[in-house]
Queue: 2 jobs
Job 1
Amino acid sequence: MKGYKTLIFALAVITVIAGCKKYEQFPVDKVTINYVFDTKDSAGVNAQAFLYGIYAKLKNGHNRIGSDYLDAASDDAVSSALGPSNEVTILSTAAYNSYTVPKDEDLWAYYYQGIRSANIFINNVDVVPVLAKYNGYSIKHLWKNEARFLRAYFYFELVKRYGGVPLLGNKVFTITDNVALPRNTFDDCIKYIVSECDAIKDTLLTAPLANPNADSHRVTQGAALALKARVLLYAASPLFNGGNIDASNPLTGYSDFQSNRWALAAAAAKDVMNLGVYSLVPKYLDVFLTQNNPEIIFMREVDNGHNIETANGPVGFTAAVGKGQTSPTQELANAFPMNNGLAITDPASGYDPNNPYTNRDPRFGYTLLYNGAEWLNTPLQTYEGGLSKPNLGLQQTQTSYYMRKFMGYNESANSYSGHNEDWLIIRYADILLDYAEAQNEAVGPDASVYQALTTIRQRAGIQPGTDNSYGLAAGMTQDQMRTVIQNERRIELAFEESRYWDIRRWKIAETVMNQPRTGVSIIQNGTGFLYNNINVLTTKFVSPKMYLYPIPYDEVLKNPNMKQNPGW
Amino acid sequence: MLNRFCKNTKFEFQGGAYRCLKKYFLPCIICLVITAQSDVSIAQTKGSKQNAASGQVSGTVVDEYGVALKGVHVVTKRKTDSTSTDVKGQFALKASAGDVLVFAYKNFYVREATVKGSDTVNVHLIPTYLKSQDKLDVLYGTADHKSVLGSISTIYTNQLTTTPASLYTYALPGQLAGLYTQQVSGFTAPPTSGQSHPDFIGNVVDHNNYAPNDNNEISLSLRGQTPITVIDGVQREISSIDPESIESISVLKDGLSTILLGDNSSRGVLLVTTRHPEAGKPRISLTAQTGLQHPLGLPAPLPAYQYAYLYNEALQNDGKPAIYSSSDFNAYRNHTDPTGHPDVNWFNTILQNYSPMTSYRLNVNGGTQVAKYTISVNYLDQQGMFKNAPGSLYNTNNDLNRYMINSDVSVNVTPKFNVDLQLFGRVQQTTQPGSGYNNILNTLYTTPNNAYPVYNPNGSFAGTSLYTNNLLSQTEYSGYERTNSNDVLANLDLNYDLSSITKGLSAKGKGNVSFSSQSFINRSLQNNAYLYSDSSYSAIGSTVSQSNSFNTVSSARYAYGQGSLNYNRSFGKNNITAMAFYDYRSVVLNFDLSQVNTNQALKAAYNYDGKYFVEGAIDNSSYNRYPPGHQFGLFYAGGLGWQMGKENFIKDNVSWVSEWKWRLSYGKTGNANVDNYGYYNFLQTYSASQGYAYTTGTARSNVQSELENGLANPYITWEKAHKLDFGTDIGLFNDHLKITADYYHDRYYDLLQIRGASIALLGASYPYENIGVNLYTGGELSLTYQNNAGNFNYFITGNASIQASKVVYSDEEPTPYPWIKHTGEPVNAIYGYKAIGIFQTAQEAASSPTTTGYSAQAGDVKYADLNHDGIINQFDITAIGNTKPTFFYGTTVGFDYKGFSFSAILQGVANRQILYDNGLVNGFEGVGFLGLVYSGQGYNVLTNRWTPETAATATMPRLSLGNANNTAWSSLYVRSGNYFRLRNAEVGYSLPAGWAHKISVSGIRIFVDGENLLTLYGYKGVDPEVNGIAYPIQRVFNAGINVKL
């Protein structure tokens, strides 16, 4: 009897314990890598979603730096929100150090995240049995090459900021890996990016796209070649090629000058031109407003909308609210020639300081909104006290100019309407200018250099003149031609994140940025106007250290192998 | 008085049954008392007459319930004769008229009684306030207090019941050595929204802050760690048990005492043991009490004219035009224009000074040797401090309404087999105003006196475009929100004596299932306010009609099973105990997966002659949230003890030493807190981005993306500790004086941290890894003295703890500046800039370093530029407070004289600092949408601001609106957090037994007690514990009656 009870007791205990054994060990809703790169998914849905995540790392340059364009930190513009804590103002007044680089330009960790994602994709996509084909092979090979392109592009974004950076190859680090890596040399980085571009260029979509409806955002063969051209152009530029800020330091550039680097850059640009699939669109503004136009080589797809107008449109319009964020400088205004192609400093140009905005290069009006420009059915008032410069203590233009570029055709509209706002990363005009610059440096101002510039100027709407020169003087020296090309680049690519880097790679930042930024104060005088130049911001550039960004402060402290850039 | 409060408590129509229950609760209890009393009066009359012989005095000794006490030592004061009571409580000894008899019994006050004309002396003994039990409650059992080698502090029922509060944790401050407490809120904070999927998936699930823990008012820290609550052998975070039904609360502080928790043994245990059934006639105790709560530490708002003046000054300091004119000041000051120039003290407008709290408790205990039982029923109603609208049909004030029942039936099925079934149920309802009391408090603290009048001339609620929701309307006319919580807990204990197999062997089994659910009813509404200007009214804000929604907040299921084989036997002077132990605990919170914890342990202890002790335990413990294959860990502990007081050299030489034990314990313990640092974070996971990542093609198709989540840590494991405790227990002068002292050295290691070298080249965020090391050391001392002078029984007990902590290793980012490092500093140090004064001149301001991008003026805070780089930034941050060991102490004093009793608990903290840097002290906080308008309330402290005139005495920087430089965390705002409180006091009187008998009860006690009666502050501005925008701490005056049958 007693044993019987003991038995029941023991059984009861065992039942209680055994009964509790069954429970789920892992949450089924946790997504692991087998799900992302699924060996059974012949559509590759999740793998492609992962690729989109890498694409999403591309930056949209519109009002990217704390609501300003990066070029508002160059000599082309200032932020209307002048204030010491404004990000572009910090950049243009040299008010940063290695731990206070404004966050939107503190992209070291950001691009290494992109590189990691690309490596995960590159290492794992092979297992996905994607059925869709392109040119007879699985489309996953295209995807993989797109990831490699993006990775190369991320490296380029790092190299232009920091010089040589650590190259990770295909490595995806785990928790136990030592990531205290040293930097690779500048040369290594350029070679790596170029070799990646070469390796992938033949297994990518080609322009013109068969199905732009689905694919217009994707990396193409032209994009790979164009990236290579841009990278080689940077590598050949004075900052790295002969003008290394730390002459013997392989991290910050080459130790010598080689003219051949220019030749390589010119050849690379020529390769893109030789594809024969890209061309300048007839109307300058359409480049930015039309999707899938033949000038676009690579872009960051954004959306339709009128955010650009809301942020940068002139103040004072109640039906079309604009915050007037960007104030282009007088320096940029002066860079535009007259519509005969002659610079305003040329006595023959016909420039009238009392009517400074008439008969200018049409791009002047495509890029800037100036006093009297037609906008929203009214002539813009940026004179003192005018509708768009009311001086009420609210944000308004600092220079009497507003930015016009990227906006829709609102001259005779009543309010802003949506339009394409994609951010163009490389367009055909870049390639022509890259070519002109590289060829001029490598060979001199030969006919092909003239041809490239003429093509650009023609599309811009500059009058060809009787000699079809579009205002370009014949027989320029290499130096004269360099000045012309640099100016052409400035006005053609204004606000496209070109100028900010160009003044660095040309090593002219120490000159142009150590001058005050100017605007104009316009006084209404009866029916006419009086124009007075005013200083709006004292910019500053500390040479040579500011030619490269500092490696983030923490990274140097945490990583004993990480060498800081000179001067920081 | 009682009735008045009952009437004030309003219940709306929905809770009809509820209202009935409430209405008839007291009558029911009274009926119960009356029906029970006939039994009692019989019991009372039985022992009152004795057969007396000449020169012989006899009588009966009973306790408060009239239950006979056996073994009471009775002696004549002249020591002529002595005896002990028998099982019926009866005694007889030689004494004559005029002799004084002394009755002494452990845990009861000494009672003297004079033999008068009669030869019968019947005596009632009253239990002592402080108890000392032979058997101590330890984790999963009891142990002889003489053989305990761990560090344990215990308090008993009487030390809990003097505190009028909603939770027993209110009674803990100052009473348990080593337990540091801080009250953080004066009212329960009911959860109102359910946990959503993302709360679990990919996010941190902080179980301690999660709803099933009902204690969100008093934060507890035991030797620096938050203790785990174990109630009757089961881990459950319940703090609302009726103190009268609690036998004892202990804190288990060292590794040996907690080792059976295995991978959770690091944190220390708050051990709650409810009252066990005792055989005997039914002991019925009924307590009714009601109290008034009064909020403490509310800030003093500036009157409107002063506010306007200071606001103007702030504007001027910021270079902006003033907005108030001198006629405005006059209107504010003289209250000539209450509509246009209001001066409303919102605290007085929406808060009541005194709010009632009422509770009834019924405890019944009794039974036979075969079956014993206890039943405890408890009702509590605590009202909040908000005013209710007159004539409102339902209550909108904060209200906590709770019914609890706890029953325990213990049955000896056979002489060797005992079954004990405990059932616990709790039904709790928490109400708050429809806007939520936290929102109201936020608005209350930030609304200036001159913001708007309460009512417009036409009687509508006033408001402005900035203050669109009238505060009074929010408080009284916003409907209500209600959280209902229901808990059921069933506990089955099986004990089987296996001495038939071998002597001293027994088996124990335990099963526990509990369920807890919370739901939320939303009946809130919102009214708009009206802006009155130019004799017209325009509606502002928005109206929201009364909602009627219901949602589940949480649902939790706990299951616990335990089995053990115990062996307990003596061989001559050799005493052995041993245990083989297994337990299994599973927790399911909402739809989360089970968390399963198991322990397999062996524990053994040996002592020789009660002199030399050795004990050891080993626990193989698992938790299923660790990587497969790494879920089991081994934890172990051991202890040594020496009862020096039993050695001959003590016994023979210093006989006044009754006990002197040395004890040493060590434990390697664990803390399975992985859930607080991520969800299954040993698995590398991926997830879709929130929203669309990218648009593709000219069609602009929105596409989802998959992204890698933060890096997994497949090596993650529990945090661990080496815990060392060295202590001594001393009893002197026949145990009248007791001393306990402890020193501990707890080294916590493998603490989860993110590595300092979190290099960005990884391309992902680093996970938490087992890196850190913290050291906690400290000492505790408790002294207790109890004695009597005749019928005057008195006691004093005090404890003091000192606790130092140090970050021994923290994998910090390398830094060139040593002062930034946390390593070497106390764990809870405060970091910020070092304020070195206030700039007195513009010149000084211009020539001194200041924060990035800020141009300082005279009157701004001056910070130390520690690295001399001419700028104040993150490199100038250093430890600015709490760098010294914390010292906290408490003392309880009291006496009892012929049923008249007094006790007081004093408690304090020293070496404590708080960073008090917020809108209440800085003034003019941002209010309105996104907090963009700097026009919040200002308080008295602003009058200490810097002005050129008050430069010498100013303690605050110049006034300014939204000034980030002057409100940066700095030593300027580090205040003394020291305090000394008269935490609790009680005066009680037990009516003479004869009086009680006249109304046929055993005993009646009336009492008056109070909470937070007096505070000495370190920093006067705010309450040292509950500060900032929180429900204030309450002073409570309470009166009650206790009837025993």
Job 2
Amino acid sequence: MEIKEFHKKYETLHERIEARNSITKESGHYWGIKKLTLRDQDPVKFDRFNSRLVAAVLGARETAKYVAASPAMTGMGELVFGLQTREGDVPAGSLGLVGHNSTMPIIVESFAKLGYDVSAGINEGDIWECNDPYYGAPHAADCFTFVPIIYKGQHVGWSGGVNHIGEVGGLIPGAVPTVAPNVFVEGFDFPVLRSGQNDELYPWWLNQWRRRTRAGDSNVLDCKMRLTGCLMMRNRILEVCEEFGADYVIQGMAEVMERERSTMEKRLRNWTMPGRYSFPLVQPVKYKGKLGLLFPEANKDWLLHFPLEATIGNGRVKYDFNGASHDDWHHYNMYLGSFRFGVNLAWYPVFIVGENMHTANIYLMEFDRPHGSVVNPSNPFVGTPSSAVMGCRTGQGLMMRVLTRALFSKGYLEETFAFEASDFNIYGMSGVFEDGTPWGMSNFSLVGAQCSAARAFMDGGISDASGQNPETDYGESEEWETTEPPLLNIIRGITKDACSHGKYRGGMGFTLAHIVNQPGPVFSANDGCAMNAEVTSHCCGSNGSYPGLGHASLFIRGTNMAELMAKGETPGTYEELQDWLKSGKLTAKEIIHCKGETVAHPLQHGDIFVILAHAPEGWGDPLDRTAQNIEADLDRDLISAGTAKKIYGAVATQNKEKWTVDLAAMEKTRQKLRKDREAASVPASEWWKAEREAVLNKRFHETVAPIYRDGLNNEKWGRKWRDFWALPETYSL
Amino acid sequence: MAKQQDGDNLATKENLLQLIEGTLPWETSRGLMRMENKDEDRFQKYIEVLQERASWPDKILVRIAEHLYVVQKKDKSRVVKCTCGQEFGDYRVNWKLSCRVRVRKTEAELAEVISLDKVIPNPELVEAREFYCPGCLAQLAVEVVPVGYPVIFEMLPDIDQVYREQGMPLPDQSPEWFEDRTTEQTRLWAKGVK
Amino acid sequence: MGTEKVKNCLMAFDAGGTMTDAFVVQEDGSFTLGKALTDKVDQSRSYMLSTKDAAAAIGVTSEDIHKTALSINYTGTQMLNAILTGTGRKVGILCSRGFEDMAIMDRGLTWLGMSFQDRMHVATHAHPPALVARKNVKGVCGRLVGGSFYAGNHLESGTEVIPLNEGQVRKGVAELLDEDVDVIGIVFQCSYANPKHELRAAEIAREMVSQKGKKTIVETSYDISPRRGENMRFKSILFQGYGAELTRESLRLVEEAAKSEGYRFPIQTMLAYGSVVNRHYPRLYEAVVSGPIGGLIGAQYLLTEKLGIENIVAADLGGTTWDVGLVVRGQIGVKSESDFARHRINVPVLSIDSIPGGTGMVVHVDTEFKRITLGPESAGSHVGTCYKWPEITVGDVDLILGYLSEDNFLGGKIKLDKAKAMHELQTKLAEPLEQDVYEASAGVLSLLHSKMADQVRDSILSKGYYPGDYTLICYGGSGPMHMWGLLEKLDVAAACTVPWAAAFSAFGAACACYSHRYSKTVSCSYPHAMPDEQKLDQTKRINEAWKELEEKAYRDFAEEGYSKDKVQLNYGVQARYIGQLDSWLAMVPVTRVNSIADLKTVIDSFEKVYTSIYPVGARFPEAGYAITDVVLIASVDQVKPSLREHPLEGPEPSKKALKGQRDVCHNGKWQKFDIWDMDSLRAGNKVQGPAIIEHPMTTFVVPPDRYADVDKHLVLWYKKKDS
């Protein structure tokens, strides 16, 4: 049956969406399309049609982005446009925030569930927007605009655009408030609403941005930018309708969806090892003592549990999160949008063929997200700012590692590439200048380009990957500085010895350091990074390497930096900063060492704010690393001679800049290190007994215990846990 | 758009061997990545190359980690085997339970393996478990998890399915080959059986 | 007597990686081509050979030409090649302490110049080979601030907050001199706002160089490109140090050769933004690319200046790329930053959009999904399986369909193997698609033509304009051959090509203005709340910057041998709404901003530009305005080709122009096409389709429903027959 028939058959948008879901599930093909009629009738015409769609979305992004306000847009391209079918699927999306395409269908679905196609209608020139995670947005910072494409009275599809705004007006300033127990303090959330008509935004809507966020003008420009792109794309698609006819466009978009779905299914079968993969992560969240009096229910710390068990087989993937922590009063609760957004990100690098960034992959996937858990909250009011972060870290970060193993095992080693899906390194700041002007801003630069994990055949890379955007770019420091006057960027470089070691080393983490310069009476900064160094980036390393290193920051207060500056002296690396502190050349009244997200710390002239970015995992046993690779690292000053000896057992000597490893000596040291391993280890059975005692006696840290309490409440994971430790059925926490 | 040209002559067994050994030049590796439709017989070639470089005769079914393979023994049993020849028993039981284990529980112990002091995990929340091969003492896996966390069974391959899809179904196919049997081991331990 | 024949001619050279084209325009507007293999060691040799080749064709000697030639324009790809092949000069850098790793972190731009597919496929990304060894990048303390868009609320742009650490400068320079670097580049944070530290460091460095009796060149990023963006300034200074000096040297050799034969003026070369300069121009790295630029200049000269056509889309279809550029209301757009050899630098470049295209492009067939895809690889001058390439290409398709003659490639110098092409297309294209080979081939062209049409449409629409208002000029070796297909899928106001389509870039180079473009960041903000006196106070920065650029311009031109009175100046600003990050160039009718009224004039110019690109809804005057950079374009007069006007003859071409007929499978239908000799056509002639007009360098296809109309400048207009 042709798509347009379905549209006759099912009246409301919601009915059609339900029909699409059931028909696609039952038949295994998008809308049950088993044969690509238009494509087969005239493959070349079909390709031409498709390239027109792609050109339309790309053109929209390339032109519209310059209207925007934050460096994140123009410099780093933190926006995306997608052409949508009437039911919201995206057959063609632009580059940029590629993951966000996958939230567009969910928001259109919300629009349908709310019955707005009936109550408000789908009218030419209407403008709709939404950033409410409850209705499909990854988090409030990701604002979504969509306008209907109506050709000669017929609804053909939607033209949608998303971008990440700089300030959302939450309790904590910035784009991603890192303390937000509930929706009422997480910023300006707005459910699906009509923000304009006749291609014009309502004036009262623009005023909302001015009153409800700290960077009103900047947000207004972003809003206009999204609209500009949507309208440009819509007009291009109307031309395509003119050329091909609306029926061809509607059917054609559906065939593109099915083509991409089946292409991806084929790749999945051919390239991955079928099997069951387990890859959990734990995420610390620290609220204790932060707002206890205000929100007693949130006066605690968490170690959130995200136990991904993925099953790949028969061209399908199942994500199973049984055992995940329960939803609660923190900012990590994930509704569907944030999760699917991350999922999409995991697949585009290897599993998208051709020029279409699409959402067809969703039809190859099955999700088991226990209701009431942090990955599927039952409470509609829990906080969500970092749900997008978690979407990246679970849907993308964990799945990328699973895929890496599946590709490795199948022999496609060249594709074993993983990186940290959004360390989400965004620091926020706010203050009042000397002249009394209040201001607030957040800085994204570290998200733009991060180091990557080691592959099955080579070391990890430097500034060559970014969780949310294939076109990595951390922008120009001089550009960023114009948005944060009191911060003087003094270090933007690699952190020596900051890597996960292995046969192949993970990418080097880097340092971003600022001196606070004449901030005025009030200034504070907070580090918003989710990669908390109280744990490692994931629970598993890779093939014998350690898991990725977390992220830390230092707030160095009451320093003598002012005198040093006057003498023309600032530290040039983290290493040097440490030396100066040790030697007393740099003095400080207080050094606050934080791991992961921090509250805002008040800072004054001469204080130093240091960020040590994370470093993803290596690959294999460090003792398998070749002398050449160790020498190369030493020559480039990436690791210290001490590390070379301690970790790799390499005895190296330097002559001018060139280092040489003594092979014989290395072999001996490695023998000894292996002996040490033997001495320090016990057979698993013995270890199991001891650890079991701890479990039986419930010797768990108060922050850890809830993981098992929640786990036991989940039948599947609870069973697994009881069985592993052979616990009595009476055992409970 | 398509990169057939780069691909055609690149996915050779020689190149595959170098890729496995980590000696393939970047541009060639990149050529492999850029193949639009990768060689569909890659799995067979991969297994052949691995078999040729293995120091023991057992038939490799799949490679599950840098040093670990699932091999088929003469008696048709499928066991995990290390490059060094050490065997870890039935692949359906998490092979980590046949390793030697070292646990790092203090900041000092962790500092020995993490070379940046400011990012050492908090021992109150997690411990680091290193799994060594009892034979060659290679470090096969590392877990950083809370006390009491079940040992992670990273990968249970569906061996029958992959061989079916490759058009060389295994004679002894059975749904039982795709079952997690780890708890059988722990149950025995609980009974005090070593 | 030979001299008479070529009196006052203009010469333009395009020295490519393989061939050097010489293009000699005689006083009467007639032109002659010469070719020679590019001599990588000493370009003056290939320069001479190609000149002699052209001279011979005219029937004179190269001396005859050189003695009276009025201008010689020499452009090449040498700098780019040096960067691509890592054969540039040894550079050392002094940068702000803490930023040394710029050399390896590279702003994270690992994907520049990659295909759409590879850009999505992150695993394939990699940093380009470094142009400087990390160990030769030395950090120096000291800092000035660049100002912020909280104008007036915090430190003024250019304020010093950390003094320059001269000790570290001396240490760094000493180490670099020990390393025997050829060039020392100095790039400090925010120097665009205040050059003080860079200039002082350069002073120290030059002292030390002369003390050591070395020849090391010292350059500052402020002189090279005083604009915001440390990574781009870093790359710009590397390009200058690494590549530009090589180009300067070749130009010197070429100039000597020309002068040895009596040429009287300096040799000129073309900059990426389309103006020409001579070898003494300081920022010679701006000549990094010029190939496609020339054509756009030529189109503007020919159609705008000579024929008065305001809106032009200039499209160049060569063997490997399809380059599309626009002339809007007589002006060519300029991008303020651009990517070369996978590096991003902030040199202004004429905005040209390029995609893989052309007759060399390889045709791929995805058997599984019946997808035809084209390129990006190209057979280039190897054409396809019909000549010297293992894979089927668009060229093979053109050949078997009959558009391309097996006997007329490069005027018959190369014979193409039609049978082979046929066989290859049969097995690699037709069979997988389960289609007839001619049907499938037609499909390939249709896809190519849609891509070309989409690119043209995008270039026009994405800037907010309407294709119907634009006149297309199509050139390049294979442009005229595929024009018909492009225009089946694209409606433009009018379309044309020229007999010298194959050498149009070289022609364009001869048409370029002698001018320089200067810009400087000023960061002035004008929120509505700001009192007028404070606005005007800031505005001083604009006037100072313009003054400074004027002086720089006069200085440069003096060095290049032009006195002040010869130099004309045009003023402009880069402006935006407060909060925006990108800014738009607007030329302004004032030379100083002395009053609120002047300021309004400047802002109105910006609004005009902005609304010509974006829908009115994208305006945001409520936010106030920011002027980020000032721009100054300084130029002097330059002789250009005078297009000869030919007397119009009758519509009937003379019979001797008709070479015969050929069977062509056009859109799946076999029919006879007349074959005409382009050189024998006269002004006023009309060639009725179906026809193919052949020239040794190019082939012009005129389908049944169209005809070609030769105007008085021998421009061939492509028109619909009225049915």
